[in-house]
Records
---
Amino acid sequence: MMLTDDDCGVTEEWMRAWNESKRLLGFRVFGVAIGAPRVAEEGSVLEALCDNLRSVEDFTDVQAAADLFRLI
């Protein structure tokens, strides 16, 4: 699990190692940005780290919650 407010950065070297670890260990990363749409924007750190990133503003929105569970 990763928690971030996206006020961080990662180096290209770190990203290469991250992607290589994902490849070697065979895992994918799903991210959920809750109530912070900028964290899920293109070019964000979380967007770079995740294979699939969703943004949810309100968990009482049945469609948004259903989308997450369909994905998983």
---
Amino acid sequence: MHYAGVEFDSGEEFDSSWGRGETIQFPLRGLIQGWQDGIPGMKAGGRRELVIPPHLAYGPAGAGHFLSGKSLIFIIDLVAVG
């Protein structure tokens, strides 16, 4: 999978596997709820945009993560299903 994450309000990119030049691989259960809800049904070679509100991402402001309280946008390319 390749992905890029952007803060909804500022449009600032906060993470990108493309920027690191390598895909990522992970178990779906270990991801934020917005990804757990948004990725199922994707097929290899597909692209999806997820717009995720704070309660499905890193929780309300002050929850301890630098993205807490923020709506997030992810562009996800599913390279392969393992």
---
Amino acid sequence: MEKPQIEIPAGPAPEDLVIVDLIEGEGDAVQPGGLVEVHYVGVDYETGQEFDSSWDRGESAQFPLNGLIAGWQEGIPGMKVGGRRQLTVPPEAAYGPAGGGHPLSGRTLVFIIDLIGVGS
């Protein structure tokens, strides 16, 4: 797979987490709180500015879901290995309201996540 390009839909940012499967995987499914190996890219909904990408580092990332933002904890379980999913994450499920101390506080974020592997 290649690094995906994220196209931001027109209109205001959604207020709730939006989950869209771009490619349906056929491997093992992610369990809540499980370990995932992913490639991902993240952009700011409003500006389209990319703020993070495992693709640009040239290697996938492994995370326990419990350590990630709520949007990932809610949006990744059930995804299957080999799948590609887009998550649009409102501030409440990302880094909190504006002024929260994180550079992305108050921002709606869009991620495309490719699931490479799962662990427990």
